[in-house]
Amino acid sequence: MTRSLLGLGVMALAAMMLALAMGSVTVPLLDLWQVIQGDGSALHRTLVWELRLPRAIAAFATGGLLAVAGALMQVLLRNPLADPYILGLSGGAAVGALLAMLAGMGTLLISGSAFAGAMLATMLVFGLAHGTGSWTPSRLLLTGVVVASGWGAVITLMLAITPSHKLPGMLYWLMGDVSYARTPWPAFVVLVVSIMLIMPLARNLNVLARGPMQAAALGVSVRPLEWVVYLLASLLTATAVTTAGSIGFVGLIVPHMLRLVLGNDQRTILPASALAGGTLLVLADTLARTVIAPEQLPVGVITALLGVPMFLYLLHRSR
Which of 127-131, 241-245, 269-273, 278-282 has the lowest mean pLDDT? Predict the structure, then answer.
């Protein structure tokens, strides 16, 4: 466990250094080291401290939030295809945030609206999938896809009635764009605090992953634990959406790949998801900034190009 997390931590640090060095203007590693020490040219100091570092931290926090939310949903549902994006949580959070933005609300109210939208999406998906009996993975997946499509229709309607001068920024935000992150620190704090809160419950999550009946027989309070996971996954998704817009497939790819490599112990998977998800999105954002520099791509485009084939592979494998 310790070695795996240490290795992921080194990879995260290397990704951050790469993000600070790469861009339309490359900062050589020697110059980057001088900037870190407080020296270097004024241009390099401005690039690193004022532009690239906040963006890299925002990307890391957003990726970590989405990956941990996906890991929690997959444990709760015992389904490797569960993901905040596919199940409609990201769409609900996006609708809530867009409504607040159109109303001219502040950042705090935008975050609250995104959380309310994510919670509403959660209730819709699980309520409709549960019905009068228990949910099944296929029913839940189909319900999530339908709800996500519904949120997409609402977003399209909102874009159709939005004033034209607001459209470009909203479209880039919906595609997932870290450059619009106002400040990375709230998302980073939410990620760290969430990991600290959920780690004491990791043993119970390991039992819950075997099924609610077995968990109840072993003394786990299943319903309160499920509600904690619901609320925390919604909070993580809402924070990620508020920070960088709607970015898909990170919560699907990262936890599943980590389980293939590290096993299914949540004491390892949850912190590893935070590190690996953050690293993935930092690298994806670096690629989005450099592939057609000086123009930039939304990072959501990069994650979708990675996530769509992975989702199809997992869907085919789960038949």
Answer: 127-131
For 188-212, letters b (16+ CB in 10 Å) and e give bebbeebbeebeebbebbbbbbeeb
Reported as a single tens digit per residue, the pLDDT across 188-235 is: 999 999 999 999 988 888 888 877 778 788 777 878 888 888 788 888
d(Cα 12, Cα 275) in Å, to the nearest integer? Answer: 6
Residue 71 confidence (pLDDT): 93
Q: Tell me the two tokens of residue 201.
A: 């419950």
List alpha helices for the chain, DSSP H.
Answer: 2-21, 29-36, 42-45, 53-77, 89-102, 107-130, 137-160, 167-175, 185-198, 202-208, 212-217, 222-244, 250-262, 266-290, 299-317
Got the DSSP string for 76-130?
HHT-TT--TTTTTHHHHHHHHHHHHHHTT--HHHHHHHHHHHHHHHHHHHHHHHH
Nearest to 59 by CA among 287, 304, 295: 287
pTM here is: 0.88
What is the tens place of the pLDDT at every residue in 32-84?
888 888 777 888 888 888 888 999 999 999 999 999 999 998 888 777 777 78
Distances in Å between the alpha carbon of 310 and those of 10, 31, 188, 231, 244? 25, 38, 27, 27, 22
Burial class (CB within 10 angstroms; exposed 0-12, middle 13-18, buried 19+) of 160: exposed
| Angstrom distances, CA of residue 268 to CA of 27, 71, 160, 203, 272 | 35, 11, 45, 11, 6
pLDDT for 12-42, tens place per residue?
999 999 999 888 788 888 888 888 887 778 8
**Contact (Cβ atoms closer than 8 angstroms) between residue 177 and residue 298:** yes
Instruction: Say what the alpha-carbon torsion angle 213, 215, 221, 222 is, to the nearest 10 degrees.
Output: -60
Residue that has been written with the tokens 């299914």 in this structure: 264
Q: How many CB atoms lie within 10 A of CB 301?
A: 16
